[in-house]
Amino acid sequence: xxxxxxxxxxxxxxxxxxxxxxxxxxxxxxxxxxxxxxxxxxxxxxxxxxxxxxxxxxxxxxxxxxxxxxxxxxxxxxxxxxxxxxxxxxxxxxxxxxxxxxxxxxxxxxxxxxxxxxxxxxxxxxxxxxxxxxxxxxxxxxxxxxxxxxxxxxxxxxxxxxxxxxxxxxxxxxxxxxxxxxxxxxxxxxxxxxxxxxxxxxxxxx
Amino acid sequence: xxxxxxxxxxxxxxxxxxxxxxxxxxxxxxxxxxxxxxxxxxxxxxxxxxxxxxxxxxxxxxxxxxxxxxxxxxxxxxxxxxxxxxxxxxxxxxxxxxxxxxxxxxxxxxxxxxxxxxxxxxxxxxxxxxxxxxxxxxxxxxxxxxxxxxxxxxxxxxxxxxxxxxxxxxxxxxxxxxxxxx
Lengths: 206, 182
Fold this sequence. Notes:
By secondary structure, chain A is α/β, with parallel strands linked by helices.
């Protein structure tokens, strides 16, 4: 008779599912190990449960945004002209940069997709061809338009201690490659790259 | 804790039998137990036959169960095997010296204190309880040994069992001993 049936136990706000082990699972595993195992199934289950939670805590602590974020040396300002913003974006090596207001609070994010949308173009090649025909207009418009006119706002942000589930949810809402990390006053702390987040999770879980 | 909960605990929490070890494990447990006890008994006969001294005590039989029959057990590791007998023998001899006018009390205190001391020193080894008890209920010749009982047989015997365990338990590919030395 099994005293515990297979069921799923939810932990950490439904983030990670722990499969509960039955006596049959444990005894089957014991039979794969040569020698007398000096432990009961109930003790093993309790140990497994505690060790599992310990491991999840360790993993989730490691992949908190504060440990993964990249420093943004030169964030954009909402009233900055687009030509200046584009130059900063190119220098930064990021595909997107957070946009701050005069108080240093994150009010949006400027991504290369925002440029495409603004130009009503599907690709940068399309913009390039238009620019070849209307070089003067492009320079003028880029200088006269502010970042706030084309940025994505409000920006989807996460706190530096956001949980695994919060980060995944934020990336789900915000279909971009990066996301600003903010403190409790909405001030910018850094930028969390989606690839860094995925890479960290992959490294930890193998 | 409520009374029903107290009695509920007596029903046990695991209702599935743990698996029997395979035949190879049974054979190697037998070989280990035979070799370990045989070496101790042979050395005892060789050096101490006809004297009041003895290298063998009954608790070594229980130790053999652990170090040859449950080699993975934390209770069977070298620190526990040697340390458990060593501290228990000290406790047993002290209890005999302090409480021998009251044999029942001396026996109970010896075993209980041996358990506590082994826990405290992380050397829990169930046969240690027998070693402590033996120091109290043993023969007059054993009592005459005093603290020599701690060295011989209570430390020397387990050391011999340990050497045999390291040599024999590592022969089969499926066995490894020890898991941890100290």
